């Protein structure tokens, strides 16, 4: 198992819109594509409180490529993203890292 950590830094004031989009739209589309989330977090103390950090669990890089590509091209997602950004951009910056658990990690 590998994990992907994604950090979304929102345009100031747009974090609530991002959280709503994940809660009401994105997770349902991920489920359709078999994308497994491993946790979502907002920043209480840190560089910015306008961030959402989340983790995805993947069996392999090949699985990630296949499922993430299908999600990114899904017409339902493209339409929903466009609608939720009709009044302005939500995310200013995305950072993604692929992580492998250590031998002593509590997750494998």
UniProtKB/TrEMBL annotation:
Residue ranges of every copy of the NIPSNAP domain listed in the record: 3-105
Name listed for the protein in its UniProt record: NIPSNAP family protein
Protein species of origin: Bradyrhizobium zhengyangense
SUPFAM superfamilies: Dimeric alpha+beta barrel
A Pfam family matched in the record: NIPSNAP
């Amino acid at each position: 198992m590998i994990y992907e950590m994604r950090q979304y830094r929102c345009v100031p004031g747009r974090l609530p819109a991002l959280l709503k989009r994940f809660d009401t739209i994105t997770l349902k589309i991920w489920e359709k594509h078999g994308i497994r989330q491993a946790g979502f977090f907002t920043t209480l103390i840190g560089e910015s409180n306008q961030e959402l950090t989340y983790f995805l669990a993947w069996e392999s890089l090949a699985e990630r490529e296949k499922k993430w590509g299908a999600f990114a091209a899904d017409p339902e997602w493209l339409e929903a993203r466009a609608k939720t950004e009709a009044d302005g951009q939500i995310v200013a910056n995305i950072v993604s890292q692929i992580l492998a658990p250590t031998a002593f990690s509590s997750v494998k």
